Backbone:
């Protein structure tokens, strides 16, 4: 699914009006009808409604919904912001149509006309659409505060009023929606953590915008969903053998942190790698052999942690970092690995921490490598940002600068590509914020990369399957009790569900 900004959505509307063709007011009718149908399907039939409208086209959507509700015998009160000017042509036309119904229409022109809201009424927010570019103030800000303090359920039409689509809205007056009914596609504002208190549960309503628009426009942002990942993961040839599914390596583990290495190794094998060798310190040999008998173990120089590495040329993919530890000699270790192995690799955990302390090594990263920082690791690598949108911009910049893929972990894990495109993951849950979850992801990515998937395919499919395995695991436990091993145990189920 595409994730589009304000100008792109507006252009899609205009393309539909021109190429379907359809009038703008009929397109408004179509959008409002989708909202009305959603309300009727989701147990809001029979409720009383308070509809708050500005005088733009978002307000026009609200007027049409109010008319449809009134015509189906719902009690509807409509409150229109009044600043002494007419609304858009479509707004005015729909206001005239609304006057022919039993809906109660009131105008808010000052603080004294901010009317009490009926207890239990469902609020529909159609005050402001996606085109705003400055913080809400004055009377509109007071109305937003009034709605937020009402205690009523709030359903935002297209986007919560006051929320910027493509930049940070931090500190602005914003509607706190229970549900957001957005049209045709997701918007960047819905994908970042800082906006979670405002958007509520998001529902994308299909309003039949012309599909030809997407064939001529390439969005920057996409949602990595089931259909995308199904197109990536290939079924196995019945006559295949393990040599066709890649030879993976993990450089991982140290005294006291072999658990991270074993989790990563198990996940690598569960993700389909043909075979795996784990490069580990001597202290981890017995642990690895017992915990992951499917993997081979290669002990490197160093008893408690790896001090030097042996030859790596034979591998199809390498993952480095889980449980590696942070030791003075690891800067040289990473440099040696980068010099020996110039194919894309997966870099995580302590390998990222070593990179952040030795940033000159960033220029030596093998092209196409996949880095998997969480936000704090990203900050240590590339510096602080003021908000989620600045961080996304910086992730894209750094991916292009170093010719790598950066998988920034979070609720909607963001994958930045060197070509400037970004993918938000659609799976996962808060229970996965637990020790070892990232090590599992590293193993899965390494296993997929070894099988010949491109770095971009690996990052997208790996993040999706990792999150899906976590979602399936929660069905058998609970978010607070989810552990990394549960994710590994459901990787197979994730593959099954992908192809159901």
Residues:
């Amino acid at each position: 699914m595409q994730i589009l900004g304000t100008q792109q959505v507006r252009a899609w509307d205009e393309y539909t009006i021109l190429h379907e063709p359809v009038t703008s007011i009929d397109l408004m009718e179509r959008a409002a009808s989708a909202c009305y149908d959603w309300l009727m399907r989701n147990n809001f039939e029979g409720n009383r409604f308070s509809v708050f409208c500005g005088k733009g086209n978002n307000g026009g959507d609200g007027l049409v919904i109010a008319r449809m509700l009134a015509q189906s015998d719902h009690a509807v009160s409509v409150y229109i912001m009044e600043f002494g000017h007419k609304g858009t042509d479509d707004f005015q036309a729909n206001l005239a149509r609304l006057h022919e119904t039993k809906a109660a229409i009131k105008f808010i022109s000052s603080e004294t006309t901010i009317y009490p809201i009926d207890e239990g009424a469902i609020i529909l927010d159609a005050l402001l659409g996606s085109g705003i570019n400055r913080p809400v103030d004055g009377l509109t800000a007071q109305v937003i505060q009034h709605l937020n303090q009402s205690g009523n359920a709030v359903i935002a039409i297209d986007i919560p009023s006051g929320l910027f689509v493509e930049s940070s809205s931090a500190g602005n007056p914003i509607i706190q929606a229970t549900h957001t009914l957005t049209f045709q596609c997701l918007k960047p504002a819905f994908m970042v953590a800082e906006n979670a208190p405002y958007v509520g549960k998001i529902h994308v309503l299909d309003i039949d915008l012309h599909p030809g628009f997407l064939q001529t426009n390439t969005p920057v942002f996409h949602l990595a969903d089931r259909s995308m990942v199904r197109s990536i993961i290939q079924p196995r040839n019945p006559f295949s053998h393990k040599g066709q599914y890649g030879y993976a390596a993990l450089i991982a583990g140290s005294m006291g942190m072999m658990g991270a290495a074993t989790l990563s190794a198990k996940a690598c094998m569960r993700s389909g790698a043909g075979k795996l060798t784990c490069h580990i310190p001597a202290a981890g040999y017995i642990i690895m052999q017992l915990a992951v008998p499917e993997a081979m173990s290669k002990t490197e120089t160093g008893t408690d942690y790896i001090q030097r590495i042996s030859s790596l040329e034979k591998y199809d993919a390498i993952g480095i970092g889980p449980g590696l530890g942070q030791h003075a000699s690891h800067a040289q270790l990473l440099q040696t690995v980068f010099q020996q192995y110039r194919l894309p690799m997966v870099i995580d955990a302590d390998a990222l921490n070593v990179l952040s302390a030795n940033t000159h090594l960033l220029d030596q990263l093998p092209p196409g490598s996949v880095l998997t920082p969480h936000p704090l690791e990203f900050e240590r690598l590339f510096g602080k940002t003021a908000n989620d949108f600045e961080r996304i911009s910086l992730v894209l910049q750094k991916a292009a600068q170093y010719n790598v893929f950066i998988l920034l972990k979070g609720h909607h894990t963001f994958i930045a590509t060197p070509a400037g495109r970004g993918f938000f993951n659609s799976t996962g849950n808060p229970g996965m914020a637990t020790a070892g979850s990232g090590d599992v992801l590293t193993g899965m990515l390494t296993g997929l990369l070894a099988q010949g998937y491109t770095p971009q395919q690996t990052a997208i499919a790996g993040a999706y399957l990792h999150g899906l395995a976590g979602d399936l695991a929660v069905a058998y436990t609970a978010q607070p009790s989810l552990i990394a091993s549960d994710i590994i145990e459901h990787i197979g189920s994730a593959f099954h569900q992908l192809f159901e």
About this structure: The two ends are 20 Å apart (CA to CA).
